[in-house]
Amino acid sequence: MVVGGNTPETLEKHHECLKKQREAVKYRLKKLAARQSEITKKSSVIRESIIRKYQEIQTVLDKDLRITLSHLEMEERAAVSALDGLMERNCSLIQEIEQDLARLTVALNQVDTEPDTMEDMETVERVMDLLNSTDPSRVSLDEAKAEQILSLTNKMLLLICSQTPIIKKLTNSYSSDVFLDPETAHPKLIISPQGDSATYTDTWQQLPDLPGRFDTTLNVISLQGFSFGRHYWEIDVTGKTYWELGVTYPTIPRKGTTEDCWLGRGAESWCMEFFDGEYTAWHGGVPHQLPYTKRFCRIGVLCSFPAGLVTFLEADKMTPLFSFCAGTFSDCLHLALCPGHDHNGNNAKPIGICNAISPTSDL
Can you tell me the distance from the alpha carbon of 218 to that of 245, in angstroms, rounded to the nearest whole number? Predict the structure, then answer.
């Protein structure tokens, strides 16, 4: 019997083929789950190792602090003890003077008694000697040593600050030079000759209507695209009241008023936006309102192909602002910028790429 033109033999072969494909997919699913478990365990081990190192650093610092303070406390105890001895001498002499005063009071009440002037002179001399020998300025801390300790601790602090945040040195090692492609820039954008900044102008420039040029949205993308590894850029947004920045596939729509032309509104791009004092992260047309009110000067953009991650950071302190878990990227990524329109005359400054310092040999 033939069903739909297929012989039983053909159907049997197709049935067997589907069973094999099902087993192949099940096996792949099993491998993916195993890989997921492996990554989770490996991440946990790495995390614990890093925590232990920070704890070891803290232990070393705490121990050194205890030793330093114990030396200072020994000096303090010695100085306090010396001053206690001097005060005791003064107290003893005061008691003797009180006794002499009492004696003299009695003598003054007895008119026929001659005062012992020699003894009075001896008391005066003893007081002068005591005052000279118990001068408070003769007892002091080793202030020169204290200044040296402060100087050394300050140098240690500067050294630690120069190495932190650790993630900044690491992230800067992913820096990749990019230049804006003027052939993609909207006609109301002025691209610097160096290709490192874009400025909005209210004048529509007479530029060739190239296929890759944005004609509605105020976008420009980088000439370079990246398809593997990790890449990091810092964008200067100082003084701006409106901007968008992120990464995009080269397939992002460039023409017309379709919403997908805007950064983050389609599946081809990921972006962070600042508008009217509010920050929003966008991808696939889905907005993520961010809880920040500070006006940042530099925004870092980190994309990691191995992790399938796009992260936006406050560049000075390397504080993560928002991360997209993009999974596996299907195309190369370009840096994308939008300086925004004049925004009521308050957004004239350019948006620029800050090329980070090349990684050093000690990274």
Answer: 11
Q: For residue 290, how many other CB atoms are within 10 A of its CB?
A: 16
Residue 14: CB partners within 8 Å, gap ≥ 6? Answer: 6
277 CB-near residues (< 8 Å, 6+ apart) = 241, 293, 295
* Sign of CA pseudo-dihedral 66, 71, 72, 76: positive
Interatomic CA distance for residues 78 and 221, integer angstroms: 70
Please, are residues 280 and 287 in contact by the beta-carbon 8 Å criterion?
yes
pLDDT tens by residue, 23-59: 999 999 999 899 899 989 999 999 999 999 999 999 9
| Cα Rg, the chain, nearest whole Å | 39
Give CA–CA dist 250/130, Å, rounded.
91
Which element (helix H / strand E) includes 26? helix 8-109
Q: The tokens of 220 are what?
A: 């420009």
Cis upstream peptide for 287 (omega within 30°): no
Token pair for residue 181?
Answer: 């492609």
